[in-house]
């Protein structure tokens, strides 16, 4: 089990999109996508794979430092697609509206929104969970998704797709992440409810629910045994690499692949 790619590597693997393992085939040809939280982890892998499938990609990030964002931007541009980098806090409604307007200004419209930016802090004791942390988790993970979905609507006149990042914690709950699990369950319900609401606009709404994925969301100073324990929750005995999640987003974003699918939660959890 430990020889599977990415297990021991979990720590510092070469990004899979640098290897020729995934060839795009135009599933998102000439689409315009906006991905939140694209300077890292799953969001970066999704943004780059979307470009490989033919989309122009805007992505947002929280950090005021641009180093990580530049890595994503370069990878998108290497695919020959246009890229727009947006900085700001998605829990702020005005920021979401500005971001959507900037994408529409540059590309003319928006076809795909990936709501992906999120916040979590591990807390073993529920009693210690401070109101400030609770509020920050809710604001980023719930308000952010809600505001961003509303903000893109005026720029999706021809229909499109929204893909939300949920989580296995929203399906099963995590005792260390009570507030976070609560928001992820909320995102799944939001996905199902919004799907019915937006179908007559031609917008499909689905979610990907990742299991354990090795990204900066998990503290990088974690000892190897802890990585192993984290990954062992999956039957594959290892955490996923972010690039293993991204094809699920392509599938749900592309009308070629999923034109008759809306309101679904797709678990990508390695047999968790
Ligand atoms: P990550 O830390 O690599 O990326 C998080 C991204 O969110 C960053 O790009 C950051 O800039 C952005 N972000 C955070 N707060 C923000 C805010 N207020 N405004 C704007 N951007 C903000 O983490 P990741 O693991 O790639 O997480 C991506 C998504 O996957 C999240 O929704 C997370 O809940 C979900 N998820 C992750 C795992 C996992 O094990 N890593 C498991 C299930 C679900």
Helix content: 25-40%
Order of strands, widest sheet: 3-2-1-4-5-6-7
- Beta content: 5-15%
Distance between the termini: 15 Å
Rounded mean pLDDT is 90
Largest sheet: 7 strands, parallel
Short description:
By secondary structure, the chain is an alpha/beta fold. The chain is built from 9 helices and 7 strands.
Tell me what the structure shows.
By secondary structure, this protein is of the alpha/beta class. It has 9 helices and 7 strands. The protein has helices at residues 41-52, 67-78, 93-107, 131-152, 168-172, 178-198, 224-232, 246-253, 255-258; strands at residues 32-36, 56-61, 83-87, 112-115, 160-165, 203-210, 265-268. A 7-stranded parallel beta sheet has the order 3-2-1-4-5-6-7, sandwiched between helices. The longest helix is centred in the middle third of the chain and has 22 residues, at 131-152. The structure holds nicotinamide-adenine-dinucleotide. Residues 36-37, 39-43, 60-63, 89-91, 116-119, 140, 165, 167, 210, 212-213, 215-218, 242 line the site of nicotinamide-adenine-dinucleotide.
